[in-house]
Write a structure and sequence with these properties.
Blueprint: H1 3-13, H2 18-27, H3 38-50, E1 54-60, E2 68-73, H4 75-90, H5 99-103, H6 110-136, H7 146-178
Antiparallel strand pairs: 1-2
Helix pairs in contact: 1-4, 6-7
Length: 181
């Protein structure tokens, strides 16, 4: 998951401390397999600040506590978020790459994203067709060979995964189409 998209998207909703975003990321189980270290999180906050996508709003300090910096998104950051989302759709390889984009899809052009989702669906359909062609090219007399039998198990998994991805993308497309313009 693109942590920068997540940070910018959350900051579009309101000012936040980095630690609050880390807790939110984990609490909401948006990507439970992703580990975010404090170093990684603060690195991205610094990078986004240097790019002028976010800005420090306020620094506070409570007794016996470290400083807490509240961040907000800039107009440049809002524009960057939109471009990052579009870029992820354009470079689509895996469905999981689109997760942060889907969270913040309401920040981009509905019509443009519908077209991009249709492109993603077409790419997955092509992948399914490619899998089917490959398997159909296996000579029938080799179907009992151990490598072929093992390859069939792998192909079945890849095909099931691609079909699941296709179903999910179609749900996202239908959901996006149902959002009022």
């Amino acid at each position: 998951m693109s942590l920068q998209i997540f940070i910018l998207g959350i900051l579009c909703e309101g000012h936040r401390h980095p630690y609050d975003i880390k807790k939110m990321f984990k609490r909401e189980s948006l990507a439970p397999e992703v580990r975010i270290s404090d170093g990684t999180l603060y690195y991205h906050f610094e990078a986004l600040t240097k790019q002028k996508y976010i800005e420090r709003i306020m620094v506070s300090r409570e007794e016996n506590r470290p400083e807490r910096t509240l961040y907000g998104i800039t107009e440049l950051g809002r524009e960057a978020l939109v471009e990052m989302i579009y870029k992820n759709f354009r470079s689509f390889k895996e469905v999981s790459d689109l997760y942060p984009c889907i969270l913040f899809i309401h920040h981009v052009s509905r019509e443009r994203v519908i077209g991009m989702l249709e492109d993603c669906i077409a790419a997955v359909n092509q992948k399914i067709q490619r899998f089917e062609r490959i398997w159909n090219d296996v000579p029938p007399d080799s179907s009992e060979h151990p490598i072929v039998l093992n390859a069939k198990i792998l192909q079945e998994h890849a095909m099931n995964r691609a079909k699941t991805d296709l179903e999910w993308l179609e749900k996202v497309l239908n959901r996006t189409k149902s959002i009022p313009s």
